[in-house]
Amino acid sequence: MNTCAIGRRRLLAAAALAALPPARAANADERFAALRRPAVAVRAPGGAVLQAAALAGGRIVAVGERGVVALSDDGARSWRQALQVPTSVTLTAVRFADAQHGWAVGHAGVILATQDGGERWVLQADGRSLAAAAEVAARARPDQPPLAKEAALLVADGPDKPLLDLHVVDARRLFVVGAYNLAFESEDGGASWRAALERMDNPKAQHLYALAARGDTWLVAGEQGLLMRSRDGGRSFRRLNSPYAGSWFALATRGQSEWIVAGLRGHACRSTDDGDSWMALDGAAPASFVSAAALPDGGVLLANQAGQLYTTRGAALAALAVPNLPPLTQALALPGGDLLALGMAGALRLPRKDKA
Question: Which residues make Cβ contacts (< 8 Å) with residue 94, sequence separation at least 6?
């Protein structure tokens, strides 16, 4: 479905909800009950459907469906569930500023924070409070009519849109992105949020799937070939020429001015000039890439929906010899050089046979 069709559907849905009598509107709001329902308790958190993971000092923190947060203190050999997670929506991404302070984002515009390495989480924001922040921004910027329109849609739709990635600059400054051009920033550790939608060079409100940064140079990758760059630490973004018209789902940076972007149907490209130009990385199967992560040895690790892993150092992709894996959502390097693959089968620790 194209973006215009999606926009028409959102407007129709908002109008239909506004026309409902109060009792039916309340019933419609039950769609978002998972927002305030604690995470589902599971017997084997390491085997839950997991979407993303991050290192918090020596601990691995993985997040996934139904609000599950899985913790490992022994390099992914064993897992336990976090003690307190106040929501059961799907969590899509997690990042840490240090061993104690971390944030996770997910469906319904959820933003969670932890101050104890992932043991306990609090809800800092959701789609409703982010919509309110967008309204505040729209009132402050009457010169930006599109912002007012987007804010009104966010309020009318309710918390039905996911956040998909985040960048943690430090324990104070955070930036989150998601579907339909969602972009919000905090400069107080997530205690308050302000809208950044108007900073994005994204008039069609295409989905923002991935965000990565190296210093003040940030890149955002998204729907239908969308690539944007900020040279001022996220204060403004400008669209880049994209080498592919399909969606990009993953970003990674390495070295000086070098970036890897990957996405639909095995397409991956490399830039050595901060995104001004791109070169295709060939050799992947026609399965969509879902994650890209820098490796300690200077390479980049890529994972796809077919359960395959690739590395790249320079202008080529090389498939890793790994056992048959289920569909993946993310892969990352563990201290010591082994790999962690996440997906439908949970967390899988993989010895890396090609490491030095």
Answer: 52, 53, 54, 61, 62, 63, 102, 103, 104, 105
